[in-house]
Amino acid sequence: MLIAGAIVGAVAGAALIFANPLIGPGDGRIDDLDRALRYDLPEAAIVLTHSQPAFVPVRPDGVEELWERTVRKSALGLIRLSSSDGSPAIASRVLVPSERTELLTAGVIVDDVWLVTLPGEGSLYVLGESNVWPVAKDTLVSVSLLRRAFRGPRDYVATAGLAPDGRALVVGATGEFANREGRAVERYRIESFTRDKGFGGVSAELRFVLDPLQADGAG
Amino acid sequence: MRATFVLGVLLGLAGVLAAARFVPWVGPDRVPSHTTVVSNGGRAETFVIRLPADRIAVAGGEEAGLRAFGAAAAEPGSVLVEQFKVRDREGQVIGVAARHRDPMGGASGAAWLLVVPGRGTMLLTGDAEPARALDNALSSAGRRAGEAWSGEVRVVFPRPPSNGRILGGTHEFAGLEGTYTETWTITGVGESGELRGTIELATVTVRGT
Asked: Is the Cβ of B174 closer than 8 Å to some Cβ of chain A?
């Protein structure tokens, strides 16, 4: 009876984690983030490489994979984005699973860092953490494991830090962005997900704001 | 019997919740860092990229010259994006890096994003090098366009006396300030334009105030 009880308890625990609101989607504010860079996956991914099973295939075929012991859990992307006025931008993005991952209060956390260049304006860094549990729960767990249907389209805010307000930090690098800081949030819209074909139609938006430029000598 | 079952339920529930909270689900595979203390304080660390083995991807236009060899895409505005694996001075791959160069007008600059899993992210920025700087140095050393070449050419970015700036980063690199130089040592060019050699990112950092 002890073992039967333990099994029932474990199943109840798993159900609690599945429904755990503490590891749900991020709540980073976006109302003051005045700039947006948009992209659609997989079309916007010029390069995507990692060493994980081919759930999200590498692009292009033959690209060097991250197979070495120290980088094999990481992913590297080269993404083409566009501003709301149609101006192009390009970003290098690196994802690394975070030691902060835990399923009771944080979620499945990945360090999510970007180097974004807007031609003619400059480059900036986005230093964030993303909680991928909400997406994984609705797709890999619900659809692939529990064989439920994906109820889409669904919107997600993945950003979960590094700033204290739950948003990502923006650090200006070059050009007009040099010596400036700000905040950023990334949102996704997933149109569909099936066990056979995986993700279908993913659009994303990186919204950010930079602190106002201060005149020389101003406090 | 009922009490035993209830005890089992509680144990099972507590076990799963404790595992969710305390099991280290992610353990980074990191190698020891090879840093040295410099005489005026701070620490020095050099990151190495071997060409062509560590080159993952590049996107750029003709203005990038040989560095755009095999580009996955041409980029507007002459932006050059290069992505690499990064090694420590022992030659072990420890991370990945991206370098963006935007040569346009007042936005001119170069920026590195250096990610070492288990240690964090380091941010480095500097002046953009002139267009085709590497091609011009190779031409001065006798390389002819369209032909294979071997020898040794060393080019330092940013151009001395300017140094690149380290803007800190995340985790182990958070709050660091300092300078860096990148040294491209090219020992050969293939007939198709593939570069052979190394890039050394030499960093000197101190804890910011």
From this structure: no
